[in-house]
Amino acid sequence: QYDVLIVGAGQAGAQVAMSLRMANFEGSIALIGTEPDAPYERPPLSKDYLAGEKAADRLQLRPADFWTSRNIELRLGERVTAVDATAHNATTDRGVTLGYRHLVWATGGPPRALPVPGGNLAGVHVIRTRADVDTLRAEAETATNIIIVGGGYIGLEAAAVLSKAGKHVTVLEAMDRVLARVAGEPVSRFYEAQHRAHGVTIVLGAKIEKFEGEGRVNAVRTADGVLPADLVIVGIGIVPAVAELAAAGAKVSNGIEVDNLCRTSLPDVFAIGDCAFHVNEYALGNGIRLESVQNAIDQAKTVAGVITGAPKPYHAVPWFWSNQYDLKLQTVGLSGGHDATVTRGDPASGSWSLVYLNKGRVVALDCINAARDFVQGKALVDAGVMQGLVPDLELLKNSEVPLK
Ligand code: FAD
Fold first, then answer.
1. Closest CA to 296 of 13, 56, 4
2. In this protein, which residues make up the domain named Reductase C-terminal (predicted)?
3. 185: domain CATH number?
4. Confidence (pTM)
């Protein structure tokens, strides 16, 4: 019997345990996760870890002895297979049943598979875990032609790293621009041009029919022809890991549904991080699942607050970053509901921002090598969404005028 049983030893799950101990919570805590590693951060997996510029031990969220010293039981390499919300227990693939007072579901989600023949061939990779990247990196050493399926952040970051390493990289994107799900068109076009300038081939509107090869992939067949590939990376998003909790009766849509205290529809069961579907003020009151470190940490803190008797509803301006070549993109707010955009600065200078507006209010910014806009834009997003502040458009467009 644990006071707090946390399922998923990733960014969000680990943060619950850390925040509980920080708040002097003395109850028993177990952190259970399928991966063999102690909690580590994923962002470097498609950036400096893929590039071989960051060592594995530097991915760890805390030093190895932290968990025992804080009396947090790590149960690694173990998967929760069923939850009984009435009996307040969870069963694992080791055949044990663990009782709980509070259950925190922080399971993230596995990469979405591309539904085409050949997806299981050797040489077809995803980037979600350290183990994924270790195999990928070893194989990439001898690869010449690398095909990346998906022009989202992870695919583009990998393209930047691998092209810098001298590989011939092709990105196959199904939509008519990269980053289509997350950014406005000027940002997409900017990144397409940057990648092309670095020698990456970007194919838009790509229709993949098949991964070809005997045992190991050697080509990708698209509607337009066959492209040789020594290695393929599929980066087309994740599927939230909800099955076991859904089977226990939790309300699920695009993720586990939670309220603003991260409570699911089951008693004493919370869900947080990439797998949690919540109504977000910065999504203009719409339900959303956020896949970011910021959201994982802030939702974890919300849960720790509820468990320690100091509940504080989740309220945080979303932010995110992506590094490609020497470009540091920082985003703040959520651009999904925008009806207009304004460009600040000259994209050709390599330092500029795209401001997203909804009914004149600033709802988000994508800032490229423009840290000042990112920092100052946060307050503008907050004032726009929470108080309906409508800034002067001419001032907004003028990058000489600080957003402050
Ligand atoms: P995860 O960190 O995925 O942890 C979930 C864990 O639960 C996993 O270890 C999983 O194996 C385990 N699990 C699943 N089911 C079970 C079960 N039934 N029983 C036990 N354990 C289970 N975010 C940013 O903000 N900026 C970035 O630049 C950025 N870059 C990224 C680059 C990559 C390559 C990736 C993959 C992600 C990146 N992210 C980035 C996203 C960020 O890492 C995630 O949002 C964050 O890790 C989510 O935390 P989580 O705890 O919800 O899920």
1. 13
2. 319-404
3. 3.50.50.60
4. 0.97
Q: With pLDDT > 90 as the criterion, what percentage of the chain qualifies? A: 100
Residue 173: per-residue pLDDT = 98
What is the band of 141 on the pLDDT scale with cuts at 50, 70, 90? very high
Give the count of domains, the chain: 3
| Among 283, 194, 286, 248, residue whose Cα is nearest residue 86 | 248
User: What residue owns the CA closest to ligand 1's atom 53?
Assistant: 108
Measured CA to CA in angstroms, residue 395 lies from 335, 369, 392, 398, 399 at distances of: 20, 20, 5, 5, 8
Range of the domain at 336: 326-397
**Mean per-residue pLDDT over the chain, rounded:** 97
Instruction: Among 213, 234, 255, give the residue marking a domain's end.
Output: 234
The pLDDT value given to residue 245: 98
Q: How many A from CA of 110 to the centre of ligand 1?
A: 9
Mean pLDDT, rounded, for 248-260: 98
Q: Judging by DSSP bridges, how do beta strands 231-234 and 145-149 pair with one another? A: parallel
Instruction: Specify the ligand 1 atom closest to the Cα of 293.
Output: 25
Amino acid 319: pLDDT: 97
Which residues have C-beta atoms less than 6 Å from ligand 1?
7-13, 32-35, 42-43, 45-46, 79-80, 106-108, 127-128, 154, 241, 244, 273-274, 291-294, 296, 320-322
Please indicate, yes or no, if residue 69 is contained in any of the structural domains. Answer: yes
ipTM score over 0.90, yes or no: yes
- Sort residue 186 into left (φ over 0), alpha (ψ -120 to 50) or beta: alpha
Domain membership of residue 312 (yes or no) is no
d(CA 154, ligand 1 centre) in Å: 13
